[in-house]
Structure formats: structure tokens, C-alpha cells
Amino acid sequence: MAHHSTIHETLTAVFQVRRFPKSITAVESVSVPAGTRCPAGYRTELAVLLWERALDPAKGTWSLPGGRLRDDEDLDTSAARQLAEKVDVRELNHLEQISVFSNPNRVPGDRRIASAYLGLVPLTADPQLPPDTRWHPVSALPDMSFDHAVLAQHARTRLAAKLSYTNIAFALAPEQFTMSTLREIYCAALGYDVDTTNLQRVLSRRKVITPTGATASPGRAGGRPAAVYRFTDSGIRVTDEFAALRPPT
User: Fold this and answer.
1) Which letter, b or e, does each residue of 200-223 get, where b requires 16 or more Cβ atoms within 10 Å of its Cβ?
2) Which of 3, 49, 183, 215 could form a disulfide with 14 if both were Cys (CB 3.0 to 4.6 A apart)?
3) Cα–Cα distance measured from residue 172 to residue 76, given in angstroms and rounded to the nearest whole number
4) Is 19:43 a contact under the CB 8 Å cutoff?
5) Dist CA 246 CA 161 (whole Å)
6) Is the pLDDT of residue 83 over 80?
């Protein structure tokens, strides 16, 4: 197909660890940040932010937030602007470009080259979303627009890889946390179970987390108060370039 012009756009897979009802029928309409108290019957998952297209092409499908690059802005500025203007997400702990999608036929009409971004929202944030925008569990994506499902899965894969060799989990976590909360974040982001003791040992050895000296209030069941930690750094850094977290065998 011949293209008369080429458009450059930014698309961002914004992730947050959230809780969804275990009932599949309710997944699309209700979710809460994982740091929020909610009734029993919810499951913790990695969620991606999507908006529903109201016009053709692909009317009724779900898209990653983004849009056309303006002549007077760079890619990072464009990605941040699109998130603020279109889905009102401003509380990002991390935003980075992860790939470029340039298949000539990825969308109908004029050719569009997409710079894909990974955005992370902390556990305690609860952005006020427009009516056409919703969090969806990555494990059960709806009917997605064009190649946006591929972009979302690519971003999730990149996040899982970075959890192995960087401290990127700081962008998903609250400022202070117990190891049980951090384990919940890792399990949701990786998509498989993680042992709390092993996680604490690895992250402490790499100086990724630091004890605050405080303890959390005991739960209803009582027991020994849990130690409270924080991330040593508030920006991303490589902690072990050869490390790889793997699912339990």
C-alpha cells in the first residue's frame, strides 16, 4: 500500500497493581488500587489503562492512551501530555520509551509509526478517569484496537524483565511497605508466585530496599508486627545485569 504521509504517535501502556472482583462478569466495571481496603472476593492483578474508541476506525474497541506527536515537542513530552490530556493521569512514578512499532499496515489510512512507552502508577494512587477510560487486568484484555494488544503485552514483558535486573518496582510500590505488600506487587507484575523470604533476601543483598526501623500495626489475627521498608532509590538503576527472576518449577 502506498502512503502519502507518515504520522508519528506515542502510545503508553500504563500499569498499576489493582484489585478486581473474582467474578469475571464484574471485571470491566469495578477495580480498586491494591492499597485500598476492599471486601473479600477480590483478586490482585496487574492492570493496564485503556480507553474505548467512540468513532471508526475500530469503534468500540479499546486503545492504549496516546496520539500524534506535535511538531514542537519531543517524544517524552508528547507521551506525558497525552496521558494528562486524554486520560487525566499525571501521577506517574516512571515513564520510559521501550520500543518502536513501524509495520506499514499496523493501522488503516496514513502510515503511523508508534513509539511505545511504559508508564507505572504507584499502588496508592487512584486517578480520576474519564467515563470512556477504565483499568483492565492484563490477563484478560478486551477487544483491542489495531496492534495495541501486542504493544500492551510487549510492555508487560519488558516490565517483568526489568523486575529481574533493576529496582523498577519502586514505581509500583508505596513510599513505605511491608514485605507482604511488596510480594503482592511482584506476584501481580510477574504473573506468578514469589516467595517472600527469597524476595527479601535478594533485594536486601542488592541494596534495593532499606528497613525504616518502623513496624506495621498487627492485623486482626495479631501476631508479630511486620517490619516496614522503603526503596533505597527513587529512580531506576540496574542492580544485577545478569539476574533473571523465573517462575517456580
Assistant:
1) bebbeebebbeeeeeeeeeeeeee
2) 49
3) 20
4) yes
5) 10
6) yes
pLDDT of 37-62, one tens digit each?
Answer: 766 788 899 999 999 999 999 999 99
pLDDT (tens digit, 9 = 90+) per residue, 8-46? Answer: 999 999 999 999 988 755 445 568 887 777 667 888 999
The angle that helices 179-190 and 148-165 make with each other, rounded to 10 degrees, is 140
Residue 185: other Cβ atoms inside 10 A: 25
Q: Which three cell numbers stand for residue 13?
A: 501502556
What are the grid coordinates assigned to 116, written together?
A: 511505545
Helix (H, G, I), strand (E, B) or coil at 168: helix
Distance between alpha carbon 204 and the CA centroid of its chain, in Å?
A: 24
Q: Which three cell numbers stand for residue 190?
A: 510477574
Cβ-contact 64, 47 below 8 angstroms: no
**Grid cell locating 105:** 499496515
Q: How is residue 147 annotated by DSSP? A: T
Give the tens place of pLDDT for each residue, 178-203: 999 999 999 999 999 999 999 999 99
Mapped onto helix, strand or coil, the DSSP state of residue 82 is helix
Closest CA to 231 of 189, 168, 165: 168
Give the predicted TM-score (pTM) of the model: 0.92
